[in-house]
Amino acid sequence: MRLRLSAVPMLFGGMLFAMSATSGLSLDNGLARTPPMGWNSWNKFACKGLNEKVVRETADMMASNGMKDAGYQFVNLDDCWQIGRDAAGNILADPERFPSGIKALADYIHGKGLKLGLYTDVGTMTCAKRPGSIGHEYQDAKQYASWGVDYLKVDWCNTLPGQNSESSYTLMRNALADSGRPIVFSICEWGSTKPWLWAGPVGNLWRSTPDIQDCWDCKRTWGGGGVVQILDLMNGLESYAGPGHWNDPDMLEVGNGGMTKEEYRTHFSMWAIFAAPLLAGNDVVNMTADTKEILLNKDVIAIDQDPLGQQGRRVKKTGDLEIWSKQLQDGGRAVALLNRGSSPAKISVAWTDIGYPDTLSANVQDLWTKKESSAVKSGYSAEVPSHGVVMVRVKP
Ligand code: GLA
């Protein structure tokens, strides 16, 4: 990873960063110019179900079922791929789960035109009590690079008393920069030390919220929450995101069984409004046609991947009815009419709600039904199902 200059160069403590007009200080390693897309093992397979067979079959499927063509690129192993360290301190993959080793797996995945991601932790152990990277940052980064790793998620479990998040992740950033390989750097401290305030120059993305739960509206005592909880936590973080540095509301639960089709559609639509990483978290080998239809909606993916890289914001809230809007590079807007209530409701967006004059005449495309309306004046209204969204692209 190389720290490159663009826009206004600044020198801090020997490290170079770039100042962008919209987003302040940001890591400029040239990676994740749009939010990363791919798959991660954790939400479906957790610790127990992770092994080489699952990963290879997932990569095979992603390369052939349209996911790769739709932009899903990373195949990410989460916790439990690792088992210990050798006498020289080198990190070891679990030989029972990964008999061919990580290098062979990376070669296989690269051969499919996809990329490989790994997981570690800046503490002494990962959350599932596998070896953490503290004291081994440079050694691990070199090892990952020599295996051909393209993405690294770094967790925040089992840290030392008083351990500082910014300096721990900065150390790992420097180790990755030194490894000689471009590696997307994903910070995962669950929003606990407000990473949006310090992680711009450190990571390509940072978890801004606690662990997602496969539910519409639920809150765990330890902090995890459903889609509704995450929506509220993401609101207000818009100014911290942009190309190369993203807020991360966690991986997708689409297809894991805890929500209705309507709710999964809303989950996916809102992650696109957030310019969130789209990391499928389901069993893609055995997914239903409904799940596939959601994950492969190219019009919604295009909103997520819009090159302007703006995170959308809530522009109006009337009880359970909300309007969210994301500015797009072509001057248009993606708008989500969101109904959090328990019965269907009509929601209306006025052009003035989304920064246009009332006199504007625009084309409106519904990104789920594909219905198009032309020369729409003043605003747009739609009947929105309970826990649903109507998501449209407005083109002046
Ligand atoms: C933490 C992270 C999750 C997952 C698990 C693995 O909870 O937030 O995304 O990586 O650890 O143990």
Give a verbal description of the structure:
This protein is an alpha/beta fold. It has two domains: 5-304, TIM Barrel (Alpha-Beta Barrel), CATH 3.20.20; 313-395, Immunoglobulin-like (Sandwich). The chain contains ten helices and 21 strands. The chain has helices at residues 42-45, 52-64, 67-70, 101-111, 137-147, 165-178, 227-234, 261-273, 289-295, 298-304, and strands spanning 8-12, 15-20, 24-26, 37-40, 74-76, 82-85, 91-93, 115-121, 151-155, 184-187, 205-207, 246-248, 278-280, 313-318, 321-327, 333-339, 345-350, 361-366, 372-377, 379-384, 389-395. It has an eight-stranded parallel β-sheet with strand order 12-11-10-9-8-5-4-13. A six-stranded antiparallel β-sheet has the order 14-15-16-21-18-19, with helices on one face. Strand 15 (321-327) and strand 16 (333-339) form a beta hairpin. The chain is globular, with a radius of gyration of 21 Å. The two termini are 40 Å apart. The model is unreliable at 1-23 (pLDDT under 50). Alpha-D-galactopyranose (GLA) binds at residues 42, 78-79, 126-128, 155, 188, 190, 211.
Number of strands: 21
Number of domains: 2
Write out the distinct hetero groups bound to the structure.
alpha-D-galactopyranose
* Gross morphology: globular
Spatial separation of the terminal alpha carbons: 40 Å
Helical amount? 10-25%
CATH architecture of the largest domain: Alpha-Beta Barrel
Per CATH, the superfamily of the largest domain is Aldolase class I
Multimeric organization: single chain
Rg calculated over all Cα atoms: 21 Å
Largest sheet: 8 strands, parallel
Low-pLDDT runs: 1-23
- Helix count equals 10
Please indicate the percent range of residues in DSSP E strands (runs of 2 or more).
Answer: 25-35%
The average pLDDT score comes to 94
Which class of secondary structure composition applies to the elements?
alpha/beta
CATH topology of the largest domain: TIM Barrel
CATH class of the largest domain: Alpha Beta
Strand order of the largest sheet: 12-11-10-9-8-5-4-13
